[in-house]
Amino acid sequence: MLTRRIKIQIAIFATVAVVAIAAVFFGYLQIQNTWFGIGRYTVTVQLPQAGGLYAGGNVTYRGVAVGRVQEVRLTYTGTEAVLQLNSNVGIPANDLAAEVHSVSAVGEQYVALTPHSRTGPNLKNGDVIPLDRAAVPPDINSLVAAANRGLQAIPRDNLKTVVDESYVAFGGLGPELSRLLKGTTDLAIDARKNLDSLTTLIDESEPVLDSQADSSDAVQSWASNLANVTKQLQTQDAAVRGVINKGGPAAEETRALFDRLQPTLPIVLANLVSVGDVGVAYRADLEQLLVVLPAATAQGQATLLPDKNIKSSYPGLNLSFKMNLNLPPACTTGYLPAQQTRSPSFEDHPDRPAGDLYCRIPQDSQLNVRGARNYPCETRLGKRAPTVKMCESNEEYVPLNEGWNWKGDPNSTLSGQDIPQLAPGTPPAAAAPASPGTPSTVGATSPAPPSSVPPPIAVAEYDPATGAYVGPDGREYRQTDLARPSNQEHTWQQMLIPPKAK
Q1: CB neighbours of 473 closer than 8 A, spacing ≥ 6?
Q2: How far apart are CA 197 and CA 199, in angstroms?
Q3: Burial 35-50 (b: 16+ CB within 10 A, else e)
Q4: CA-CA distance, 495 to 481, in Å (whole number)?
Q5: How far is Cα 170 from Cα 167, in angstroms, rounded to an integer?
Q6: How many beta carbons lie within 10 A of that of residue 111, not counting itself?
Q7: How far is Cα 479 from Cα 499, in angstroms, rounded to an integer?
Q8: What are the pLDDT digits (tens) for 428-467?
Q9: Do residues 97 and 123 make contact, with C-beta atoms less than 8 angstroms apart?
Q10: Tell me, what's the pLDDT at 439?
Q11: Which residues make beta-bridge pairs with 101?
Q12: Less Cβ around it within 10 Å: N or C end of the chain?
């Protein structure tokens, strides 16, 4: 007889047993998926051979288990593997490859699904992965047999040498090889992430490779020239070594030279900039000078080489030393008047008169053709002017007068122009009283007051007919003993005696 307590215990035990069996069947064995297909869909994979695959094997997607192999069966073209996949995992169907792999060398094959594109629809129930996108591993027995045959083909002594040398080459390099493999893995992962860019690079590299093929002759020529250069370097090895060994000290000496030149070199270069500007401005003149220099040198040699291919009754240097003193006389037009001309005996240093002093006669005059009035303008071809400002402006040169000598009132000119020539807008200097023997200021309106002090010793031209001349003070003097009609004896001492004013 079963008591009430025993019945309750039997009921509780039966309930626990049913729950445990249900947990095993439905939680672990997944009989609801395996037998009834709940939460799963079926995909068929066509394989050339089973490759050791068996029912119940795992199916992975990107290394994660997503289902199991339900059945492996024979077909007329090979085998088929029926896969049950979890419905909650979407697997792209475009360009999907199914590969059979082995977990270890002793078996445990599984199917790895590897999509090559992330776009397109996902796998669905009843899809078939064709044979051309499936792969199985090679037979392990064939691999072992091939490896055995390869090892038997190698002599034992040579194989031992290979093993020993391999140990010498790679012994102790475990960390380095590990870093190498890790770097290679990271490189492969990055390449996978940038697969589209790499594919584009490979596809678009064809024009570059074609250009290299088209320029093969040039590449071969470059390689030949490079070989010649390296050959020369090899031949001149001693010289190259000398350059390398002495290059350091030479560079140090160069640095020391620049250090010594550092205080003065910038100033020199800055000055050379000004010289360069002048050289650029006078480039045409410098070119003409270089053009005529050979001819001038040849003429100089012909002049300085006496009796060179010349029949002359006077051997030696064929030059004329005739001294034409004061022929023609000095130009005074455009300079200060006589009473403002300083004597060479003065030793003071007054300020330079404002303006430009030069021979201001017509440009087509036959006298003083190389004077300042005929300076060629560098920036205005065909124009000649005495100053750069006149060259750069539209102002034309105007002569003071037609004569060679100074004309007009000592304090003004017939043409109304100031002496010296002033720049436009520059007022003439005011008159100032002059000390004895000191010339008056330019632009004065009255002559300097007479002085009782005799004029200092100076040089002046005199009229041989009358003995008259103009002194440094601007006054006219007459010394009758200088006249030609005079019967008095002329001595150089008498010429130095100061005459009396007229």
Answers
A1: 339, 437, 448, 450, 451, 455
A2: 5
A3: eeeeebbbbbbbbeeb
A4: 9
A5: 5
A6: 27
A7: 7
A8: 543 333 333 333 333 333 333 444 445 455 566 777 777 7
A9: no
A10: 37
A11: 110
A12: N
Structural contact between residues 39 and 88, judged by C-beta atoms closer than 8 angstroms: yes
Alpha carbons 114 and 133: distance in angstroms, whole number: 10
pLDDT tens digits, one per residue of 288-313: 899 999 998 888 777 666 555 656 55
Q: Fill in the DSSP letter of residue 399.
A: -
Other beta carbons within 10 angstroms of residue 386's beta carbon come to 21
What does the DSSP 8-state code read for residue 404?
S
CA end-to-end distance (rounded Å), the chain: 186
Quote the tokens at residue 238.
């001693």
Give the DSSP letter of residue 430. P
Q: How far apart are CA 113 and CA 119, in angstroms?
A: 15
At 99 the three-state DSSP class reads strand
Supply the pTM of this predicted model.
Answer: 0.34
What is the C-alpha to C-alpha distance for residues 412 and 38, in angstroms, rounded to an integer? 129
CB 229 within 8 Å of CB 221: no
Phi, psi of 358 (to 5 degrees): -160, 170
Contact 499, 475 (CB under 8 A): no
Q: Could you tell me which of 132, 76, 85 has the C-alpha nearest to residue 111?
A: 85
Give the Cα separation of 500 and 405 in Å (integer): 26
> In this structure, which amino acid lies at residue 148?
N
Relative to beta strand 64-74, strand 79-86 is: antiparallel
